[in-house]
């Protein structure tokens, strides 16, 4: 299936997604730069980016330094192309759950999920699970105290992922 040339609305937050041309894979991907940071891949496009040797520089460059809106990744997303509900599916790598459209094959990844999928190949999966649990445990708020809700203080979660980037992806 050819790239979808039309602008699409983000299935997670409703903002207009922006097209980024990925020269190595020769496809356009849609990314929610003004909203939640989610990435939409037409049919089999994701397969071109989930291995660590495949370049995602353009994506990393586009998201660098941006703050993205938090969205609920448990919510059912509607495929912006087919207008039907997408289903949650384990990616098999990195212990990440992504949204898949069974009609057109499109996949939607929340902010940082692509990086986690790629990361999942480099580190022990149980290690990633442990880190995810530590991050998203219900008592995170207790651990962080007031800073959890304070927009002025840098989000520990963001810092965590930025460290991961440096350690595993950008070298
Ligand atoms: Zn979005
Ligand atoms: Zn679809």
Topology:
Blueprint: E1 18-22, E2 27-31, E3 39-41, H1 57-63, E4 87-90, E5 97-100, E6 107-109, H2 113-119, H3 125-136, H4 140-144, H5 156-169
Antiparallel strand pairs: 1-2, 2-3, 3-6, 4-5, 5-6
The site of one zinc ion has 8 residues, from loops.
Count of folded domains = 1
Q: Describe the sheet with the most strands.
A: 6 strands, antiparallel
Q: Could you tell me which ligands this complex binds, including any ions or cofactors? A: zinc ion
Strand order of the largest sheet: 1-2-3-6-5-4
Could you tell me the strand content as a percent range?
5-15%
> Could you list the spans in which at least 5 consecutive residues all have pLDDT below 50?
none
How many DSSP H or I helices? Answer: 5
Structural class: alpha+beta
The mean pLDDT is 80
The number of distinct β-strands equals 6
What is the H-and-E element order? EEEHEEEHHHH
Radius of gyration: 16 Å
């Amino acid at each position: 299936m050819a790239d979808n040339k039309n602008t699409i609305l983000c299935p997670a937050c409703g903002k207009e997604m922006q097209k980024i041309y990925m020269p190595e894979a020769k496809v356009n991907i849609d990314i929610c730069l003004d909203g939640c940071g989610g990435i939409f891949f037409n049919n089999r496009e994701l397969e071109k980016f989930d291995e660590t040797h495949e370049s995602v520089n353009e994506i990393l460059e586009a998201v660098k330094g941006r703050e993205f809106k938090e969205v609920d990744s448990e919510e059912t997303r509607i495929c912006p192309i087919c207008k039907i509900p997408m289903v949650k599916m384990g990616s098999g790598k990195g212990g990440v759950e992504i949204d898949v459209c069974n009609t057109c094959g499109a996949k939607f990844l929340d902010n940082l999920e692509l990086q986690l999928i790629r990361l999942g190949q480099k580190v022990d999966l149980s290690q990633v699970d442990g880190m995810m649990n530590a991050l998203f445990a219900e008592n995170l708020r207790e651990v962080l105290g007031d800073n959890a809700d304070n927009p002025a203080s840098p989000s520990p979660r963001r810092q965590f992922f930025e460290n991961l980037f440096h350690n595993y992806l950008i070298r």
